[in-house]
């Protein structure tokens, strides 16, 4: 019996460790598939490097689109925040630019808009960290984009220097730590005595009043004047914490030359294969091709345009260009273990569907991205 219990504990521990390793690298897998596919689509996400020293910069660029398929039960998106997620404060945000404008705070967002972002980060803590760009939408939560492992090499320390308005330069990593430590323990000691004084009758004798009596509870003062006085003495020149929220400038939109209507699809969980049928119309003046499909943090590239080492590919039938004024029914086959392993399409959920952006390119190199949403019939036999 003991051997069975020991074996069960070992297996449970191994399972937990395995789950933790996966979660540390791919936290987006914990989100519902429909939430990832129908809310925000990331595309063209690039990391400038995968190795930096402490204090050196890494830049993350890409685009995030709030899709027209944004679920109605989540409400219309009104405010968003583009950031990163990592296992703790291992990277430091130094600069963030959205649609060409500095964006230190949250921004006002709108369904259907695309946000071109550039984030500059400094390596802070030594180690190998999995970093993702994120798009937090008020009411919907934080949507996670494609991630990459970044190694921060140890150089003996990290400094986050900041120039104050009075001309002084301080290191925010250590600034005020001594005072913080002193006042933390001093406040703890005073607070502990204050609590014991009003709760332990033995301190004041037999007739000592405690908070067990309502009149005493109502008369116990709470005082924060000391904190305000200390701040005024230490920092006579200060401004309130600033809040800057704005609508980023709109990106220039290319001429629209494509129209897409989803006709349905199927998913085989055994082979992790998604098949979609779409009606595509070329409303432009030059031939166009289907070049890719973006959903959540995945970007699929069509076989005809995929380069060497493309991570996710899809096949398009029939192949060939779509002439101006022509409408074709295309069969898109996307066979990739990510559908199943990342739980993007889960046949055990009440909503089995796929959403994303189908990418087209005409002969001049101009691209269109059409948002599609299609129900999926799972193949369970």
Q: Overview of this structure, please?
A:
- This protein has helices at 2-25, 33-38, 177-199, 214-219, 225-234, 338-341; strands at 40-47, 51-53, 57-66, 79-85, 91-98, 101-102, 107-108, 114-123, 127-137, 141-144, 148-153, 161-163, 169-171, 258-268, 273-282, 288-295, 298-302, 313-317, 327-335, 353-362, 367-378.
- It is α+β, with helices and mostly antiparallel strands.
- It folds into three domains: 23-158, Sandwich (Jelly Rolls); 171-234, no CATH class; 258-378, Immunoglobulin-like, CATH 2.60.40.
- A hairpin with a 2-residue loop joins β5 and β6 (101-102).
- It is elongated, with a radius of gyration of 28 Å.
Helices and strands in order:
Elements: H1 2-25, H2 33-38, E1 40-47, E2 51-53, E3 57-66, E4 79-85, E5 91-98, E6 101-102, E7 107-108, E8 114-123, E9 127-137, E10 141-144, E11 148-153, E12 161-163, E13 169-171, H3 177-199, H4 214-219, H5 225-234, E14 258-268, E15 273-282, E16 288-295, E17 298-302, E18 313-317, E19 327-335, H6 338-341, E20 353-362, E21 367-378
Parallel strand pairs: 2-11, 14-21, 17-18
Antiparallel strand pairs: 1-3, 3-8, 4-7, 4-9, 5-6, 5-8, 9-10, 9-11, 12-13, 14-15, 15-19, 16-17, 16-20, 18-19, 20-21
């Amino acid at each position: 019996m003991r051997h069975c219990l020991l074996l069960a504990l070992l297996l449970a521990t191994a399972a937990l460790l395995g789950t933790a390793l996966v979660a540390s690298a791919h936290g987006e897998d914990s989100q519902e598939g429909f939430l990832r596919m129908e809310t925000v689509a990331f595309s063209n996400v690039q990391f400038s490097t995968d190795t930096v020293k402490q204090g050196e910069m890494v830049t993350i660029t890409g685009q995030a689109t709030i899709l027209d398929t944004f679920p109605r039960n989540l409400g219309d998106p009104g405010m968003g925040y583009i950031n990163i997620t990592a296992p703790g404060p291992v990277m430091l945000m130094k600069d963030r630019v959205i649609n060409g404008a500095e964006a230190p705070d949250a921004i006002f967002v709108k369904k259907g808009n695309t946000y071109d972002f550039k984030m500059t980060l400094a390596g802070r803590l030594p180690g190998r960290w999995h970093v993702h760009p994120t798009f937090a939408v008020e009411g919907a939560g934080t949507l996670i984009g494609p991630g990459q492992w970044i190694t921060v090499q140890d150089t003996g320390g990290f400094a986050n220097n900041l120039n104050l308005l009075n001309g002084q330069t301080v290191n925010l990593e250590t600034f005020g730590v001594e005072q913080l430590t002193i006042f933390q323990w001093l406040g703890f000691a005073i607070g502990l005595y204050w609590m014991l004084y009003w709760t332990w009758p033995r301190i004041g004798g037999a007739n000592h009043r405690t908070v067990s009596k309502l009149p005493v509870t109502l008369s116990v003062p709470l005082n924060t004047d000391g904190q305000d006085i200390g701040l005024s003495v230490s920092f006579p020149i200060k401004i309130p914490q600033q809040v800057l929220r704005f609508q980023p400038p709109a990106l220039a939109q290319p001429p629209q030359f494509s129209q897409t209507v989803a006709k349905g699809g199927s998913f085989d969980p055994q082979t992790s294969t998604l098949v979609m049928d779409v009606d595509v119309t070329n409303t432009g003046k030059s031939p166009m091709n289907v070049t890719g499909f973006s959903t959540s943090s995945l970007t699929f590239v069509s076989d005809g345009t995929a380069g060497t080492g493309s991570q996710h590919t899809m096949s398009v039938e029939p192949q060939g260009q779509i002439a101006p004024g022509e409408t074709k029914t295309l069969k898109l086959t996307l066979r990739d273990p990510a559908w199943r392993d990342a739980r993007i399409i889960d046949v055990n959920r009440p909503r089995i569907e796929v959403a994303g952006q189908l990418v087209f390119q005409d002969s001049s190199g101009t691209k269109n991205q059409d948002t599609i949403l299609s129900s999926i019939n799972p193949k369970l036999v």
